[in-house]
Write a structure and sequence with these properties.
Blueprint lengths: L1 H28 L12 H19 L10 H14 L1 H4 L8 H4 L15 H10 L15 H13 L5 H10 L8 H8 L10
The structure holds heme C.
The site of heme C has 22 residues, from helix 3, helix 4 and helix 6.
């Protein structure tokens, strides 16, 4: 038996070394195109997508969901969403944005898809590696993240007008520098600008 096992083991280790060397060569050679405008092949994309979905479900499944029907919570989420998310995830009246069109993976249009609240909470809090989805948990507490989740449950059913009305009524995002948001609407030369 010994004579049979050994050559197999040798072949196994030898081929492992060849594979590792090949992988190293591939990485160092620079042949892989890292450009965002060079898209993955279908099998690679499906593989990454499955890994992403399984990773999120596993981590999100035991999260307990608060009452997402609270109107104040939804309103707060509308303000947060309008301030931080629309350039990538759009609104009911936006077709695309300058930043989104060149992104890969492309951020989903959240005014068109219904999300699972647990998965959405986990993704918003932790972000997604090697995509441009930030971990908002670094700068926002759980209650604020739930407000975004609550709003996102309503967003796909909203008309552009309903969206605009809700955002107009929403409390301002307290993390935003109000001077900055005023400045972007008003010219600098209006003479009342103190800093
Ligand atoms: C700079 C662009 C960018 C910004 C800003 C951004 N996201 Fe994302 N987001 C992404 C990308 C890209 C993905 C998709 C990642 C992927 O598919 O792997 C994503 C995915 C998501 C998902 C998962 C959707 C799904 O189909 O499972 C949710 C939920 C989400 N974002 C919520 C938000 C919220 C809420 C905000 C604002 C607080 C926000 N994002 C801001 C880029 C962004």
């Amino acid at each position: 038996m010994k004579h049979i096992v050994k050559p197999y083991l040798f072949a196994f280790f030898a081929s492992s070394i060849v594979v590792a060397a090949g992988a190293g060569l591939f990485v160092y050679s620079g042949v892989y195109n890292i450009g965002a405008d060079d898209h993955h092949t279908k099998p690679v994309f499906t593989l990454i997508q499955t890994l992403r979905d399984q990773s999120i479900h596993r981590r999100a499944k035991d999260i307990s969901v608060p009452n997402l029907e609270d109107p104040q919570l939804i309103l707060k989420g509308a303000g947060q969403y309008a301030a931080m998310c629309t350039s990538c995830h759009l609104t009911p009246s936006m077709k695309d944005s300058e930043v989104r069109s060149g992104m890969y993976p492309q951020p989903p249009n959240l005014s068109q898809i219904q999300l699972d609240p647990k998965d959405a909470f986990w993704v918003i809090k932790h972000g997604i590696k090697m995509s441009a989805m930030p971990a908002w948990g670094a700068s926002h507490d759980d209650a604020t993240i739930w407000s975004m989740v609550a709003f996102l449950q309503k967003l796909p059913k909203m008309t552009p007008q309903q969206y605009n009305e809700m955002v107009a009524k929403a409390p301002p995002d307290e993390d935003m520098d109000m001077n900055m948001s005023n400045d972007s609407q008003m010219p600098h030369s209006h003479g009342e600008h103190h800093e």
